[in-house]
From TrEMBL:
This is Uncharacterized protein LOC107433775. InterPro entries: Methyltransf_11, SAM-dependent_MTases_sf. Gene3D superfamilies: Vaccinia Virus protein VP39. It comes from Ziziphus jujuba. Keywords: Methyltransferase, Transferase. The gene is LOC107431668. GO terms for biological process: methylation. It holds the Pfam family Methyltransf_11. GO terms for molecular function: S-adenosylmethionine-dependent methyltransferase activity. Residues 39-116 form the Methyltransferase type domain.
Amino acid sequence: MAALFIKQAKQYAETRPDYPKHLFEFIASKTPSHNLVWDVGTGSGQAAQSLAGIYTNVIATDTSLKQLELAPKLPNIRYEHTPPVMSMAQVEKLTPQGSLDLVTIAQALHWFPTPTFYEQVKWGLKKPHGVIAAWCYTVPRVNNSVDRVMDQLYSIDSKPYWDPARGFVDDEYRSIYFPFEGVDGGVDDTGPFEFATEKVMDLDDFFMYIRSWSAYQTAKDRGVELLRKDVVEEFERAWNVEGGCDHKQKKVVKFPVFLRIGKVGNI
């Protein structure tokens, strides 16, 4: 799947939302120390940048060198280009055993071979209180008019072009395999916990966000344009409810965020 995001890395970096400050504050409140984080599937570094403001050091890895080139360069973030599936030997070179306070995965866990990856996470996290936090965001919400057009595009038009793994995002990570303990003492609830993030966009930004979908790229590779003329016109009417065709009219776009979080325990 990494190849799908290489082709639109610039669009991805420019249009994907930043994550809310209170999401990171919530996660950080569950880790006893704040020394070292591994942000896996960092993409263009949206999460890594926020983590770097809380944790002393961040290791941020991704399979796309093109996306890493677009990530913010901060002195306490170490970016590493990795293969799609890392061996244990490669993980051992990345960080010492039991050294990680936190492992984060933003909008990427559904692409991972989870049993293998979780063994690596358990090897790297401090026992018993090292934390893993994985979150996804679902279809953005604007207003009733825009949402109706978006739901048609997402649920009907683009559906044949999404990888089956996208289903984990659609169900808000409820069904994704997540074999970890609850972070709050004896409570075994690992979520999902709901947050939200917002991004101010004009219609051109919104179209660029759609073009950053893996499904958009897959459809394009098969000769299908999801943003057909009639679809664009429907979005224009919905975006400019008072009339006209102003692509530069800005709106607040809300992205629902769903977090799974747990601690490694003594396993």
